[in-house]
Amino acid sequence: MNISRENIKKSKKKTIARILLFTLFFVGLLGAGFAYKLYLDVAKATDKMHNSISRTKSEKREEELEFKEKDPFSVLLVGVDEREGQNSRTDSILVLTVNPQMKSTKLVSIPRDTRATIVGMNKKDKINHAYAYGGIEGSILTIENFLDIPIDYYIKVNMEGFRDIVDAVGGIDVNNKFAFELDGVYVPEGAVHLDGEQALQYARMRKEDPNGDFGRQKRQREVIQKILDKGASFSSLTKYDKVLKALEQNIKTNLTFKEMMDIQSHYKSAAFNVEQIEIPGEGKIMNDELWYYNVEEKDRKALSNKLLEHLHLNKSVANQQEVNTAQKDIITNEKQP
């Protein structure tokens, strides 16, 4: 039986097409399997990171927060210097307010030496001491009181484990304005690739920075952004297991996996417009002969109003909640022997 060349060509094309379709289908299955495994691994890691607090809602909110309704929310991000044999204090304090309707995020840096009322201690002290007195919940309450806004969620990063996170994403690239050495680690000037140890010192150094704590805050924000950018890259995705391990060992948060997924689904637009805010103030040595960063009341209120507006909250509601809380504290103190 004679087979024409045209039929042979058609047969070859069909065979090639079948092979191509099979290959695409197989690759698709592998991709789906990888995506599913990644989903499960991320869920497992976030479960290990999850650490709830005693309350379910801030007293400065009247209604429950609904991610599906795209309600604006706030997050306290703290870096805790948990060195062995020392009292832990917050080395860095950042507050984010996220508004998907305005497609914006505000990032407030609070100097760790800011003089503020430590909730539960009934005294003024450096705001980073709130963690030493009352842990993460003490920090949340103190910062809520200082900014007069609800703190809906927190993320706590162990600064000592910070290097592991940077190393897990393959290091980060920064443009260092001046060379310095801290704790035996040298960071050269200019465009430089930092490993975990160098990035840790880059985020910590302040004494050699002419801008002091403000310079350090800026570098901390830079390092966080670089980690996020690097973590979202394909190269990091191929070694995601190392990234997840570093995160689960060094991060605690009251955000659940479902809440993280809701934020990812409904709040993407807010990530493209980030306003960084520094609190105006002045350094002073007070009666206890300690140096504090003092913020004028008018500046504190102006910042509070700006954040409340961004959170779509009525200022009078927050103020009334503060009055209610103060009254509760008075009643509690009266009951104490």
Task: Provide a concise account of the structure shown.
This protein has helices at residues 5-49, 130-147, 162-168, 196-204, 212-231, 234-237, 240-250, 257-266, 297-310, 315-335, and strands at 73-81, 89-99, 104-109, 115-118, 123-126, 153-158, 172-176, 180-182, 185-187, 190-194, 251-253, 274-278, 282-285, 291-294. The protein is α+β, with helices and mostly antiparallel strands and 337 residues long. The strands form five sheets. It has a six-stranded mixed β-sheet with strand order 11-6-1-2-3-12, with helices on both faces. Strands 4-5 form a two-stranded antiparallel sheet. A two-stranded antiparallel sheet has the order 7-10.
How many beta-strand runs? Answer: 14
Task: Compute the average pLDDT.
Answer: 82
**What's the CATH first level of the largest domain?**
Alpha Beta
The amount of helix comes to 40-55%
Can you tell me the CATH architecture of the largest domain? 3-Layer(aba) Sandwich
Q: What oligomeric state best describes the polypeptide chains here?
A: single chain
Total helical segments? 10
CATH topology of the largest domain: Aminopeptidase
Low-confidence stretches: 323-337
Instruction: Using the CA coordinates, give the radius of gyration.
Output: 25 Å
Family: Belongs to the LytR/CpsA/Psr (LCP) family.
Keywords: Membrane, Signal-anchor, Transmembrane, Transmembrane helix
Domain Cell envelope-related transcriptional attenuator: 89-231
Protein name: LCP family protein
